[in-house]
Design brief:
By secondary structure, the protein is of the alpha/beta class. The protein contains ten helices and eleven strands. The two termini are 30 Å apart.
Amino acid sequence: MSEQNQANCNGSCEGCTANCEKREQDLQLAPNAFSHVKKVIGIVSGKGGVGKSLVTASLANAMQARGLACGVLDADITGPSIPKSFGISGKAQSDARGLLPKESRTGVAVMSVNLLLEQEDQPVVWRGPVISGVIGQFWQEVAWGELDFLFVDMPPGTGDVPLTVFQRLPVDGILIVTTPQDLVGMIVRKAYHMAQMMHIPVLGLIENMSYFECPDCNEKHQIFGESRLDDFAMENGVPILARLPLSPQTAALVDKGAIELADDKPFAPVLDLLLGLG
């Protein structure tokens, strides 16, 4: 801890962004005794509607297909969509080990608040501290088992949940999902700077809805205008790992709960990066 931080420290780490040994020791939660997770990867976005959950589910499925054991912690407590993407329904069970994640058809372990509610369309009307507490429970009380990668699907923005995840979980890095619009690009900067404040590595950027490829002539059309992401990437030294097309086929598969059948070729550079993390 720096001398300035020592002088300003009141002994409480809650809400503190100082990168000091005391904060890491006091705030990071121990995992469930039956969880052995090698890498924790956060999927974040500056705003909603950019396809963050689609990216999360796609990456978990693609890595699982390559022989790695993967899980998804659905941290978007008020807007959970991960179970539907995988076609998972019903309530999660528990035993002496703790709460048990449900598995997709291909074996991806999933935990979401929707798997704990009586009805999946039941609204979650909770305040921030309660939601943050649930995130901690999903780490401490869920028996994830042996996982190579746990992907954390975070809600948009820079509020309580991202702060809780960054401080309480051993996050190895984040991927920022965006779309081409200027407004989204501005908000991406907020997510990027929050990660910097919390000393979380930004592994790269994924631009969703980057273009639409005509099935008849194969010409690519930039529906949302020319991307400005290259400027941001160059300014901050962050790689653009993938530019994903608008895909009605993928959207239909998500609606059917069959994300496993979607084409994962556009994610190849992201998968290579993740595999390189060891």
